[in-house]
């Protein structure tokens, strides 16, 4: 395809970012809780939305997922529009994986059934994918166990395998590690990051912890009062915070 070939509606271009959020705003009860938020995420890249509680991080994620509607702005994936002010692709048709803090597994299903829940196709292929994922999250031999037999960290890894199973182009993670104790957290965070990079998934990770953003992000979008106040590589933001409040926010890291 030559570069000047026009792109038909619904067609994608090689140049388009995996995820593009443009000028997103959300008004609740007359209050603008997300204001003109824009960012792009490439395949295999981790974008961290970082900011204090109430600054609009989760609302931004919910709009991208399609479970909340924006007042203005648009979301595109691989150049294809997912939603704008008047149009919305249903959440299940967006090719987006979600992991939230309370990563609830289906308690009555086995680990294997949880991981294969969103998969369609021949049984052998589904089983192979489940086996591959359980291996990657280091849970070989767990397929027939039920969630109540697992520790918090193990359940978290099952949730990760389940979210990755249908090979989402985009993964949205809302404070996914905050329920884990410190001892487990570092290992699970690093494994998760590795897995998502290998799968080439574009990740938006929400956190209120600067240390977590510094450790995991390729890019950080620092949010305050619904807006992105600074965007860039972790060490650039850490070394040159845009104002005193941003500097204070990072000052707890040791
Ligand atoms: P964060 O994830 O950064 O803590 P949220 O996106 O959850 O922030 O919330 C941003 C603001 O929007 C908060 O003041 C919250 O109370 C408000 N809010 C979130 N969802 C709704 C809703 N559905 N209706 C009204 N207000 C909401
Ligand atoms: Mg939140």
TrEMBL record:
GO terms for molecular function: ABC-type ferric iron transporter activity; ATP binding; ATP hydrolysis activity. GO terms for biological process: quaternary ammonium group transport. Keywords: ATP-binding, Cell membrane, Ion transport, Iron, Iron transport, Membrane, Nucleotide-binding, Transport. The keyword Glycoprotein does not apply. Residues 19-250 form the ABC transporter domain. GO terms for cellular component: ATP-binding cassette (ABC) transporter complex. This is Ferric iron ABC transporter, ATP-binding protein. It comes from Roseicyclus elongatus DSM 19469. The chain holds residues 1 to 254 of 372 of the full protein.
